[in-house]
């Protein structure tokens, strides 16, 4: 009848059996690297009904702690970090191990309320969050924002670790190499071209090793 037609829910293009209102938004970190975040229940399931709820999860789980840029030690808050930095004994410079998460500047952007966001759909807001968290990813690399449940057929239907690592490397390796090169450029005083030729192979090997630890 007429009333039932008004209450009928639209169907998702991604799943003909699941209505749009039943779809839940996925954690972007889990979407991008499900192997690493599989053990975090809040990242994996049951998902988030709104992007606002998703952001609450991001602030709780993925906001990076304050970190000393010299020794890479992390601290519980900015006060203890400042105390560490003011210590006259100083600290040793150590190689930075990439931490997966987002920093204070990205947090500020996530919390920013722009007028242009008022008319955005929840899906558009999710993609905006993804762009802030992973600015080096291209538009074609942005996944669907929704949790994708596999049918219970006795098989997971999930890609193998090799396939997932290949995809993870494709996204992460360029960014990791660039970040490592920038660190080398800041530290080296001798002619840059000669130094890069000497260290390029070692840099790539270091980045590959870091990728493995980040993926596991």
From TrEMBL:
Superkingdom as given in the UniProt entry: Eukaryota
Protein name: C2H2-type domain-containing protein
């Amino acid at each position: 009848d007429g009333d039932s037609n008004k209450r009928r829910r639209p169907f998702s293009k991604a799943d003909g059996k699941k209505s749009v209102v039943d779809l839940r938004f996925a954690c972007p970190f889990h979407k991008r690297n499900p192997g690493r975040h599989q053990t975090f229940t809040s990242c994996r399931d049951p998902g988030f009904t709104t992007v606002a709820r998703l952001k609450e999860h991001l602030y709780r789980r993925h906001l990076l702690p304050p970190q000393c840029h010299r020794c890479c030690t992390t601290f519980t808050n900015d006060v203890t970090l400042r105390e560490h930095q003011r210590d006259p004994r100083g600290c040793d410079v150590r190689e930075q191990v990439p931490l997966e998460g987002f920093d204070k500047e990205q947090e500020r952007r996530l919390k920013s309320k722009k007028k242009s966001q008022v008319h955005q759909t929840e899906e558009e807001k999710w993609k905006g969050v993804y762009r802030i968290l992973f600015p080096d990813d291209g538009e074609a690399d942005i996944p669907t924002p929704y949790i994708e449940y596999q049918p219970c057929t006795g098989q997971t239907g999930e890609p193998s670790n090799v396939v997932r690592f290949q995809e993870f490397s494709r996204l992460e390796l360029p960014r990791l190499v660039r970040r490592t090169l920038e660190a080398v450029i800041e530290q080296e005083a001798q002619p840059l071209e000669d130094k890069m030729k000497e260290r390029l192979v070692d840099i790539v090997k270091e980045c590959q090793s870091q990728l493995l630890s980040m993926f596991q």
